[in-house]
Amino acid sequence: MTKVSMKVNGKPVSGEIEGRTLLVSFLRDTLGLTGTHVGCDTSQCGACVVHVDGKAVKSCTMFAAEAEGCEVTTIEGMANADGSLSTIQQAFQDHHGLQCGFCTPGMVMSAAALLAETPKPTEAEVRHYLEGNICRCTGYHNIVKAILAASGQDVGDIGGDAIAAE
Amino acid sequence: MPKDHGIGASSKRREDKRFLTGKGRYTDDINLPGQAHAWFVRSQVAHGRLTGVDTSAAEAMPGVLRVFTGADFEGVGGLPCGWLVTDRFGQPMQEPGHPVLARGKVRHVGDPVAVVVAETAEQARDAAEAVEVEIDELPAVLDMKAALDPDAPLVHDELKNNLCYDWGFVEENRAAVDAAFETAAHVTTLDLVNQRLVPNAMEPRVALGDFNPATEDSTLYTTSQNPHVIRLLMGAFVLGIPEHKLRVIAPDVGGGFGSKIFHYAEEAFCTFAAKQLKRPVKWTCTRSEAFISDAHGRDHVTRIELALDAEGHFQALRTETHANMGAYLSTFAPSIPTWLHGTLMAGNYKTPLIYVNVKAVFTNTVPVDAYRGAGRPEATYQLERVIDKAAREMGIDPVEIRRRNFITEFPYATPVAVEYDTGDYNATLDKLLEIADVAGFEARLADSKSRGMLRGLGLNCYIEACGIAPSQLVGQLGARAGLYESATVRVNATGGLVVMTGSHSHGQGHETTFAQVVADMIGIGEDMVEIVHGDTANTPMGMGTYGSRSLAVGGSAMVRATNKIIAKAKKIAAHLMEAAPEDIELKDGRFSVAGTDKSVAWGDVTLAAYVPHNYPLEDIEPGLEETAFYDPNNFTYPAGVYACEVEVDPDTGKVTVCSFAAADDFGNIVNPMIVSGQVHGGIAQGVGQALLEAASYDDYGQLLSGSYMDYAMPRADDVPFYRVDHSCATPCTHNPLGVKGCGEAGAIGSPPAVVNAVVDALQRAGHTGVTHIDMPLTPSRVWAAMQG
After folding, report:
1. Residue A122 lies in domain
2. Highest taxon of the source (chain B) (predicted)?
3. How many domains does chain A have?
4. Which residues neighbour A157 within 8 Å (Cβ) at sequence distance 6 or greater?
């Protein structure tokens, strides 16, 4: 067992772990931060995306020990200080960018990383960036729409989204 | 003007905040004090005799509490099958046993052989490596037609062959159907494969069993779409635990798509082991394990023949399908290729004569059961592909041939045992042509050509039978369960209320939409209504969520219970206002006496119900809580028309979906935003099936596409924005909300549109010999088709 220390969502944390412990296991099992999810075992699905020193990382692909001394942000650290939803989170709710919610933490973390790099992405850039995040519920339509909306772009006419007659 | 609350409003989902902030509570997020961890040892071969399982080395490993094998389950029941199909000779299907852990033989890669339970998941996994499993390998039975050869090895030694059943529907029609083919002006024949898929809900399955030695109560936390069904099946048939001593909790569940309906061995194991070890036992599935242990979907091989007169009117339809059951019968497997498939073969058309033959076959593969659409996508795909082929052969426009054969009068009794209550297929077709801008196709085709790309347009109709299901009808068809739904509405003294529903939400947003309905009925704010689901201890016996049934059946139960509440509340209000109950009106959360200015608020009445100081105690009981069950008297029949435009790269065969449009008739709609989202997700799964996904086995029964490295899930850049419309609504005639269900439509309606579009693109480019390509339409398959 080795000791690992890092900052998670702004707070210093530490724990005793096995060398093989993945960052996602440290977050979920040691720290009880269960918002970060495990959806696969081949680093494909992206449900476990967190930010490590500001970069989007699949936390199933990194040993916890590799994050020694790093600043880690998880989905639990994404809301505004007063507990209200951040712009990206709010856009996901406003545009129905989630259904079962399982891929959602990874989607939000990836979206935040994208918008940090590219504040006004095109639709194609959003879709390309999300290649490492799989969603089985939404067909991606409302996820892409939410991210474009979070970037301040007009999404009013996307998809028609016709409403049933009264 | 769109509504801003109640039925018809796109209310934002109340579920979202917890999911967006990491505060969801999925089964794997739950950990109990003293919890041990299970790791399954699974067969690595497809078929073989199990000659020995040596657990001694594993038992000596650090942290190991116990290693279980099939021998520990002597005297424990097997996993039950919930549907008995009777074959075309009047005989019951062959129904083999399905042990929790393999005994005697292993029958598919992934078949569980032993389980290590240890202090930590890592210790259990390490020790599982040390379990020595001896298997005398047997030839694997994989191809369905070869499996029916009299000399084929038997998947189950106790059965006479590998045929589960040979089903004919409607058997009495067979001679008339054959005769119609003899005299038809034109016959179109198509051989096609509806390939095996892996459902792949993003949350892998998890089971956590707990046992209280003092009370002898068992609790199972599980990733299920229907906790009451699991309680009944596992309690009564597997472990012998009476329902009052068994609680099943399905908390937040990360998608299901059918794969979490079924009762799985791991659920029974964790419940059993917790009692044996007197400690909570948790199992968390890895994705690799999910690929070889979650029930798969589809896997039909079909020949379909359509007989037409000289004007393209459908005269008769005949199909022969081989349907893969896999190695064991999963919970509802036998019903999928029969009653959820054969009954839909009329589609949207007035074909007078139909005969469907299905041979269900055991093979050494993962069991196959319901996956989003479940039988209806298979029916729709065959029918809409053969219609497209017939139209091309006869030189009739694909839109026109469909219109020419539409059912236009309702109710309509099909020759395959169902009666459509409402619909307007011309209206949805017209709407589709508009939203897909079919008139503008030629211009887009020219643009594609100018870039050296091929372009095609495909469209198709679909109909589905949802709102599953009328219990008496399905009982006659072999269902071993009722398919009603339940709701309890508990009004609190201060006017807020809780609805406890037997439906289960795993992404559908019931907590929002169900609240919209009840709030609208009473005229109070949606925030005064809480929806509780997923726990057998605090919800009435319900059958759960699948088959697009939650609003149509569960919602109807909730409406009934709410109507009972309103009726009782009116009596209380009448007493408070010294009026006759029949004169009381409820509007916007106030009770008033008709024709007067007397009124009392909802909260005054609810308070009186629980503080009955001024109350008609001689006539009615205190309190305000009602339960209702609802059993539908027919299925609902959502229908629609879908269109897809593709570009095909002539050099590589790569298909790009340029646009996808869907016009659906779901009847009345409670939350249009959520309905659109359901369609979007279904379309992506259908596009995934059409272009990307396939569960492929090699000749030895090894699953080649066993991870996301090999199984191509649709990603964000594989699909476009969709254009969806559900304004063409013909409300369901037989449920109180007039709703039809929307959960599966997208997955049912979309695969043929994509394939029709690709074939259209190739035909337009002069590849006139290409009349069909089997899914998934990978670049290599499309390229090969273009090479002739």
Report:
1. 87-150
2. Bacteria
3. 2
4. none
